Amino acid sequence: MENNLYSKKVMEHFKKPHNYGRIENADGIGEIGNVVCGDLMKLYIKIGKNKKGEEIVGDIKFETFGCVAAISSSSAVTDLVKGKTIKEALEINSRKIAETLGGLPPIKYHCSVLGADAFLEAIYDYFSKNKRPIPKKIQKNHLRLKKEKKELEERYKQWR
What we know:
- The protein has one domain: Sufe protein. Chain: A (Alpha-Beta Complex), CATH 3.90.1010.10.
- 46% of the residues lie in helices and 17% in strands.
- The chain is built from six helices and three strands; from the N terminus they run αβββααααα.
- The chain has helices at residues 8-15, 68-81, 86-89, 94-100, 110-129, 136-155; strands spanning 28-33, 40-49, 55-65.
- Strands 1-2-3 form a three-stranded antiparallel beta sheet.
- InterPro entries: NIF_FeS_clus_asmbl_NifU_N.
- One of its GO terms (molecular function) is iron ion binding.
- Residues 6-131 form the NIF system FeS cluster assembly NifU N-terminal domain.
């Protein structure tokens, strides 16, 4: 680990993030925040088709306001899912993101979870906009995030 905190891979993604930016007219947008640490992630996806006619993540970009681990996790998730079929991309999880980065300090592992959740929310948004059936895994994740957001809003309503 560089500086006894972050791996070389984390620092590479932080210093030169991949796929940073916004996609105008995105097919799906996933927005995630963590009120405890203050990280905010927004992932934009464009869906395309491969030679077999399967839907793929044709393009993906992110905007993240957060720490080194949050920015690196956002960059890593875009690399992991870009060009993959939706089915393949849905197999990417926080553990895979952290592994790709050469690990994260335990206190920063939640950043990889945010990256995975932001992607699932972008897919949820894409399916919703297109009136498509939403896989149970994505529905379950969306409901969990919605519940957490509601609980946090209730807990911190005096700050709104």
